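Researcher: If only I could read C-alpha cells as easily as an amino acid sequence. Walk me, if you will, through where the backbone shape changes along the chain. I have put the entry right below:
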Amino acid sequence: MSAAQLPAGEWQADGSYVHAFHLRGGDVVVRYRASGVQAMSATPADGWAVSVEQPGGPLVVNFREPGGGLSRLEATWEGGPTARVVER
C-alpha cells in the first residue's frame, strides 16, 4: 500500500478515525486525528518483534523477524488519514 487515503475504518464521535492494519509481521490499530496519530495496539505475529516510533512526525511501527524480514507501517494525517506499508 502506498501513501493514500484509507478506504475503510471507523470514524469516531470525537472526530478521530480508527483503522486496523494486518501486516505479515503483526497487527496494528491506529487512531488518527488532525493533531496527531497514535498506535492503540501493536501485536507481533509469532516469531516477530515490534517497535513503535514517533519521532515528531509520522507514526512508524516496525515488525522484525530474526531472519531479517521487515513489516513496516508509516501512518500520518495529511489532509486525512494516510498510511504506507512496506513488506520485505
